[in-house]
Amino acid sequence: MTKKKAQDIELFKEVIPPGASKEINLSFAKLHTNTPIDVPIFVERSIYEGPTVLFTAGIHGDEVNGIEIVRQIISKGINKPKIGTTICIPIINIFGFLQKVREFPDGRDLNRSFPGSKSGSLAARVAYKLMTHIIPNVDYCLDFHTGGSSRFNAPHIRIEKGDDQLTELAGIFNAPFILQSKNLNKSFRNACRKKGVPMLLFEGGKSNYIDNVVSNTGVNGSKRVLHHLGMLRSNFKVSSPRKNSVTITNSMWVRAHASGMFKPAVKVGSQVKRGEVIGHITDPYGKIHYWIKSSNEGYVFNVNEAPLVYQGDALFHISTGVS
């Protein structure tokens, strides 16, 4: 089949021709010192027509493991496509990244601010620019996240139930788990769905922490997706999955029934039986001992690694239905 030559694209009023390698430093806002904060956007284009894939991370500033995955995709040249175009934004919430926090300086969660507003809050303005200037050029999006606080997520892809296209792509990505979950209102994922842009949302690891297994899972999955789309160059190897992803159709949180010092007894990603001891809570004086047992058989795909917990804190996320 004869390849067609690609056409120019325009991002933030800048024309990017086929075959170009471009870094756009977009200034969303300034610090109190009037110092501009630039958000680097890396665009790599083939001379040949093909899909446009967007890789994003750092919507929450403390989710550095996702940032590390996109960094590796750029650093290793995986983002240089054989056909089509890739757009990489390693850190969207650069304000939160600098402060090692989740939110924007206005206290808002960017992932609850979409599709945004041209004249709204700082987070809403950033969301608006993404949806107005980037998403109209995109065919697919891979968005990388981690667990919040001390909760460590097993690497998994989140998709909406019944979406055949995303189900296929998630299987190709081949993270250990696929979690069927509803799109949250005002999230980036939901905004992309409304624009007809399929998104794979990757979760893995915990905030302010980099885990090599999680990073490797994200990078290898991204290569598989690019290979499937015909975009991955031949000098990159695509690893064959050892087994298919486990699809989690339903799940439940196990919460602390007491406050105290907490130790998990199972590793994230492990399969547990009903009644199995999965953790232990005690007080600093050794007066109380509370054994946490699994109420059902399933996979533990999120573990709270905080040493101190309060009553009601989420400790484990366990599947209650798989397919």
TrEMBL record:
InterPro entries per UniProt: AstE_AspA_cat, N-alpha-Ac-DABA-like, N-alpha-Ac-DABA_deacetylase
Domain (Succinylglutamate desuccinylase/Aspartoacylase catalytic) ranges: 50-227
Molecular function GO labels: hydrolase activity, acting on carbon-nitrogen (but not peptide) bonds, in linear amides; hydrolase activity, acting on ester bonds; metal ion binding
Co-factor(s): Zn(2+)
UniProt xrefs under Gene3D superfamilies: Zn peptidases
Keywords (A to Z) from UniProt: Hydrolase, Metal-binding, Zinc
Protein name in UniProt: Succinylglutamate desuccinylase
Organism: Pukyongia salina
